[in-house]
Specification:
Distance between the termini: 62 Å
Radius of gyration: 24 Å
Number of strands: 46
CATH topology of the largest domain: Pectate Lyase C-like
Strand order of the largest sheet: 22-24-27-30-33-36-39-37-34-31-28-25
Helix content: under 10%
CATH architecture of the largest domain: 3 Solenoid
Structural class: mainly beta
């Protein structure tokens, strides 16, 4: 029997003794040869991925399509399975064992836009196991940017959310089925994917720690544990001890919690969870260490005047964040001036209303490595040097994004660099951008401080990225936007793969110029137009030392609409 622990204090509504009817129906096996389903290896991430459209199903396979405001455009590989009749299912055969299950799904919103809940039935090897509790509360946005929760404004998008569950071990060869049964009351279920992983054993409490339970926190109830955490933080800080978050869901419903110099540790991201209305932390110049827990918020709108972020502020010199799982907040991390040598390692940031992480306002020498980000409502990973007077005009320098995987930002880019200098973007994979974004944007826009040092982009892969954009011109999978100032520093782009881009693979836009763009070992696979597109009203120079193409409609690698002002040298 599976035992389930839902993130964010979700509890199964199933009653004891409840039984489910199983209808014997023929399953349809979907072929996996479509180019639109290109997905690279997930190493070093611990899960096996099962795309719904590649499973056996009696539902309807929809897609592929990249049309904005369609569920297909927000689906992995641009395809999903729809279940809308009793007895319909999609199922998979497990290729690795595991106890951690994630389902990416969509159910209809409530008529007033405030979300609804529904169940979906889980089976293993043909036997009913449990009801999964799903919600539309944190999905569905309407109207124009920055959107609302009012369906009357139209333009519905941001359809998907995820449910994560702890289960008894699923073994290799087991059949996992998601099925709409009689008591599963949503009008329909869109299933995008499931992921299954081996959950590591819980960590042991450090000897030099205070547990929040010692200060009155109980967990797994509806009580506000903010006062207990505040007391624990104060005691730990004064005695140089670690704050220990044991197994359970602990609600934080008070104001944002201020963090000084302190270390916080949980039993692991599958065990210890901070949830509630305000699982949010404000840092103020002292380094912190936070590791091995989940932070599951309740933010379902975007208010850029409110710091509804998991972590926000000046992170001081040397803050470290490891093995965190963050969802349902505006941003995962937003840093400000004074942040230096910050490290993010092995974290998961998903289903946010804005950026996953933004190194902003003079944040320097900081990095994100081996992290997974999915379904962010703005750039998944960005470094931004805003030049507006109120921001202090502090450039961000020497930040890096290395070996991360980014999927399905439902708005904006996978990776973005706005001004500053000496940044490094290496070894990342970005898939399935939806609107207004490429796999990577290098931009002097958003009033950013002009670039001040060379940019290195190497060994990245961009799959099904680029497309329509708010600027009125389609953008490439790799997008260079010379917007408010010239990009005068060298930009080195090498070892880059662009697969099945929506428009051009690489695009350069004005009205300003780029002086030194160098492309080396660029590989383009799948495209209906020229791999490189130089748009009108820009100027500068690009040197292409090596570009290889296949499955491209045209033999011409270049479309230059500024031939007199923008010079492109392609070496044979």
């Amino acid at each position: 029997m599976f035992l389930f622990y839902f993130s964010g204090c979700h509890r199964s509504p199933e009653k004891k003794g409840e039984k489910a009817e199983v209808e014997a129906k023929s399953a349809i096996s979907i072929p996996t040869s479509s180019k639109n389903a290109v997905v690279p290896s997930f190493e070093p991430f611990p899960w096996a991925r099962y795309e719904a459209e590649d499973g056996r199903t009696t539902g309807q396979v929809r897609g592929p399509s990249r049309v904005y405001y369609s569920p297909e455009s927000e689906s992995s590989g641009r395809r999903y399975v729809r279940l809308d009749s009793e007895g319909q299912f999609v199922e998979f055969t497990a290729t690795q064992s595991g106890e951690g299950l994630v389902v990416r799904y969509s159910i209809p919103d409530a008529p007033e836009g405030d979300g609804q809940t529904a169940t979906l039935s889980l089976y293993r090897n043909g036997k009913y196991e449990k009801k999964l509790l799903l919600t539309s509360r944190h999905a569905w946005s309407y109207g124009n940017f920055p959107w609302s929760n009012n369906p009357k404004e139209g333009k519905p998008h941001h359809f998907y959310d995820e449910a994560r569950s702890r289960v008894d071990e699923i073994k290799v060869g087991d059949t996992i089925r998601l099925q709409k049964d009689a008591k599963d009351t949503a009008d329909y279920y869109l299933i995008d994917l499931i992921e299954l992983e081996k959950v590591p054993p819980p960590l042991t409490r450090p000897s030099n720690s205070f547990s929040i339970e010692e200060f009155g926190a109980k967990g797994d109830d509806d009580m506000n544990d903010t006062p207990a955490l505040l007391e624990c933080l104060s005691a730990a800080s004064s005695q140089n001890k670690i704050v220990w978050i044991p197994r359970g869901d602990f609600r934080l419903d008070g104001e944002r919690i201020a963090l000084g110099r302190v270390a916080i540790q949980g039993e692991g991201m599958w065990y210890s969870c901070l949830t509630g209305k305000k699982p949010m932390f404000a840092v103020s110049g002292q380094p912190v260490l936070v590791s091995d827990l989940a932070i599951m918020g309740d933010t379902n709108d975007r208010n850029d005047s409110s710091p509804d972020n998991a972590f926000d502020g000046n992170f001081g010199d040397g803050s470290i964040f490891r093995h965190l799982w963050i969802e349902h907040l505006k941003c995962g991390f937003w840093t400000t001036h004074g942040t230096r040598n910050m490290r993010l390692e092995g974290c998961r940031i998903r289903n946010t209303m804005a950026d996953g992480l933004n190194f902003c306002d003079g944040s320097t020498d900081s990095s994100v490595e081996l992290c997974h980000l999915r379904s962010t409502g703005d750039d998944a990973l960005a470094t931004w040097s805003p030049g507006r007077e109120k921001q202090g005009s502090n450039p961000c320098l020497r930040n890096s994004f290395v070996n991360n995987r980014i999927e399905l930002p439902w708005h904006a880019n996978g990776l973005a660099i706005y001004g500053g200098g000496y940044h490094r973007i290496a070894g990342n994979t970005v898939t399935d951008t939806v609107f207004s974004g490429g796999g990577l944007l290098i931009s002097s826009g958003f009033e950013s401080i002009p670039f001040s040092g060379e940019i290195l982009v190497e060994d990245n892969t961009f799959i099904r990225t680029g497309g329509e954009c708010y600027i009125g011109e389609p953008v490439g999978g790799l997008w260079i936007h010379c917007h408010h100032s010239d990009i005068e520093v060298p930009v080195h782009i090498r070892g880059t793969s662009l697969i099945d881009s929506a428009q051009s693979a690489i695009s350069v836009h004005g009205p300003k110029g780029a002086q030194v763009l160098q492309l080396d070992d660029v590989r383009v696979d799948g495209l209906a137009q020229e791999p490189i597109h130089i748009f009108p009203k820009t100027y500068g120079k690009m040197e292409v030392r090596s570009i290889a193409t296949k499955n491209v409609a045209t033999q011409n690698p270049l479309r230059n609409e500024s031939p007199e002002k923008f010079k492109v040298l392609i070496q044979k």
